[in-house]
Write a structure and sequence with these properties.
Length: about 325
């Protein structure tokens, strides 16, 4: 994973990128036109559903994605109802990180692993507090967004050739539960960074805890490898710093309404096309995307104080995730 070279192509990803873009942009556009843009921003996070099992045939995704959507809805609802108490949010982040990691690794869910379940919990807690949305209304918006993105992901089934592909049983798609040595080590790393990240967040600002833990979990990824942990950590740090600069440029324009729907959809498309080939470059887009989305939902769009906090939180989280990589044996020791 080089900073100066792209990884080999794993095949075209424009379809996945388009689905993610539609899942992100359409709820924002529709709810903006209906006069409830905040609910549109909330529903747009349902686009995370599309990001899982991206390499699988559509008939197989039809079996996996409902489980993913249910996990995202449960994570979002938990964060929304926990938002009233910072300590409850902190404990919730640890529980969601460990449980989602155990399930993701134990059932071989694959990338992006437990990351978006942690982010969904943390984002929900933050948005409910700042936007003053009732938890039940918030949960309904999340569920609507996940359901819409699920339908978008299944849209290729309208093509007869796609429908005719033989479907595999769910037990073959998500084998488990079983944790081998590598998976147990990944789970241990997630548990450690979740606890340390929450403790650090509570000392500084409980509202920033989820970003620290999210950055650490993103660096851990789904591959048990010491060298890769340090590489992902470096990519995460540099990509986020540059991404905050991109956010600053976009915030000057203060995009609103249909423009922000179009902008976020375009960024989401580019992220999915790039992320498997260059992690740092993807983060240059992911960072402003998340900052714009949460900023729009909480009314803090354009706040550079928040952006600078995110740089610090990412540096801390990425350092935690990378440092936890020392728990893996060196490559020579495994041979």
């Amino acid at each position: 994973m080089s900073l100066f070279a792209f990884a080999p192509s794993r095949g075209p990803r424009w379809q996945l990128g388009l689905q993610a873009a539609i899942g992100m942009a359409v709820p924002i556009a529709v709810m903006t036109l209906l006069g409830h843009p905040t609910l549109g921003y909330v529903a747009a996070s349902g686009a995370f559903t599309v990001l899982f099992a991206g390499a699988a045939p559509v008939v197989d995704r039809a079996r996996v994605l409902p489980i993913v959507a249910a996990g995202l809805i449960l994570s979002g609802a938990s964060g929304a109802f926990a938002a009233v108490n910072p300590w409850l949010v902190g404990v919730g982040i640890i529980v969601v990180a460990i449980v989602s990691a155990g399930l993701a690794f134990g059932f071989r869910l694959g990338p992006p692993g437990p990351l978006f379940f942690v982010l969904m919990f943390g984002l929900s807690a933050q948005v409910v507090v700042h936007a003053e949305i009732a938890p039940l209304v918030y949960t309904a918006a999340i569920a609507s967004g996940c359901a819409f993105s699920f339908l978008v992901a299944l849209s290729p089934l309208l093509i007869r050739r796609v429908r005719s592909h033989p479907a595999r049983p769910l037990a073959a798609l998500l084998p488990g539960p079983a944790l081998d040595a590598a998976s147990r080590m990944l789970l241990l790393r997630v548990a450690i960074v979740a606890v340390l990240g929450v403790l650090l967040g509570l000392l500084v600002d409980p509202g920033r805890t989820y970003w620290i833990v999210g950055a650490a979990v993103a660096v851990i990824g789904v591959t048990a490898d010491r060298r890769l942990a340090f590489q992902r950590g470096l990519h995460r740090m540099l990509g986020t710093v540059v991404g905050v600069g991109v956010y600053a440029l976009l915030a000057v324009l203060h995009p609103q309404g249909l423009w922000i729907a179009l902008l976020l959809g375009l960024m989401q498309f580019c992220v999915e096309v790039v992320v498997v080939r260059h992690y740092a470059l993807a983060l240059v887009l992911i960072t402003p995307l998340v900052l714009l989305l949460t900023g729009a939902a909480t009314g803090q769009i354009g706040s550079m104080d928040v952006a600078l906090e995110r740089i610090i939180d990412t540096l801390v989280g990425a350092a935690l995730g990378a440092a936890s990589g020392v728990l893996h044996p060196r490559a020579s020791a495994r041979e």
